[in-house]
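Chain A, query sequence.
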Amino acid sequence: MNKTQKEQVVDGVKARFESAPFLALVNYQGSTVTQMDALRRACEPAGVHFQVVKNTLSRRAVEGTEKASLSALFKGPVGILFAGDDPIAAAKLLKAQLKDNENLAVTAGYFEGDVLDAKAVEAVASLPSREELLVKLLQTLQAGPRNVMGVIRGPARDLLNLLKNYENKISGN
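Chain A, predicted structure.
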């Protein structure tokens, strides 16, 4: 790689560092080319990007970003998983890929302004996804009006039951 190509790589990786809401550093030592290709292909449909970049270039790219504290963690064979719009989905995808490829290991991550260790990255994967949170929010918003309608209908229903019982009592005598 010449200097211009390295600068282009650094600029591209820096843009990903700045825009990714979640990222994970993954040690891929012992993984085959086929396994790495499978990881990349699994990431594409989810809007997640997995990239292997030389550690020196990664350190340059992370400088000047809010994720600069990750610089010291670029040691050994490290790939970077950059989340797209949904950081929780990216963490879940990574967790699934770790099960499929025993040679992959999370070394660190970054989420919500904090550097994470491997256990914390796994904890992020256990959070509910955006869609699940939206469903829960909708259920919560609908519960109030449903309860109010139940209270409003209660007296009318009770009056109807009272009249029905009275009718049965009169017709039974």
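The mean pLDDT is 88. Residues 23 and 105 are 14 Å apart (CA to CA).
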